[in-house]
Design brief:
The protein is built from four helices and six strands; from the N terminus they run ααβββαβββα. The chain is of the alpha+beta class. It has a single domain (3-162), classed as GAF domain (Beta-Lactamase, 2-Layer Sandwich), CATH 3.30.450.40. The structure holds methionine sulfoxide. Methionine sulfoxide binds at residues 43, 67, 69, 72, 77-79, 100-101, 103, 110, 126, 128.
């Protein structure tokens, strides 16, 4: 993938985040634009920690095949492992990873990137590809930047919600 594509997508996401009013619209913009520009991103979605139970990830906006994994305990799946380990996880071959929870039989590789607010994980971006080993260190860096934009946006709207008028 050309370097320009990553730079251009990040610039558009940053611009959208500056004027977005709510988290869901920013997340929806991200899951729309990324697979449009990066065709090997076959499933792109957010899982956010349940505010009522921080041991459960809840499916948010996504693009791709519907998944049965609407709620994932942090003790399960590659999605759960990213929260439990507090780190991005890149799996080149999902068939050889015992943690993997299948979403589509076509999925061959996966990457999960935590979203942090003031350093605390609040959710994650999850991407599946039909290609084996689809994601490079540059994809990881790109997605970590997307996650940082989302975390920064959440910090801003939280600060606005609690600031005196
Ligand atoms: N594969 C994930 C589950 C979510 S679906 O891919 C959409 C996992 O192993 O946690």
């Amino acid at each position: 993938m050309s370097e320009d594509a990553f730079v251009q997508i990040l610039s558009e996401i940053r611009k959208f985040a500056e004027s977005a009013n709510d988290l869901a619209s920013l997340q929806s913009f991200i899951v729309e634009i990324i697979p449009q520009r990066l065709p090997y991103y076959n499933w792109t979605g957010f899982y956010m920690l349940d505010p009522e139970d921080s041991n459960i990830l809840v499916l948010g906006p996504f693009r791709g095949a519907p998944t049965e994994h609407i709620r994932i305990p942090v003790s399960e799946g590659i999605c759960g492992a990213a929260v439990a380990q507090g780190a991005s996880i890149l799996v080149d071959d999902v068939a050889s990873d015992r943690r993997y929870l299948a979403c589509s039989i076509e999925t061959r590789s996966e990457i999960v990137i935590p979203v942090r607010v003031h350093g605390e994980i609040v959710g994650e971006i999850d991407i599946d590809s039909h290609e084996p080993a689809a994601f490079s260190p540059r994809d990881k860096e790109f997605l970590e930047e997307c996650a940082a934009i989302v975390g920064g946006f959440m910090e801003r709207i939280q600060a606005q919600a609690t600031s005196p008028r």
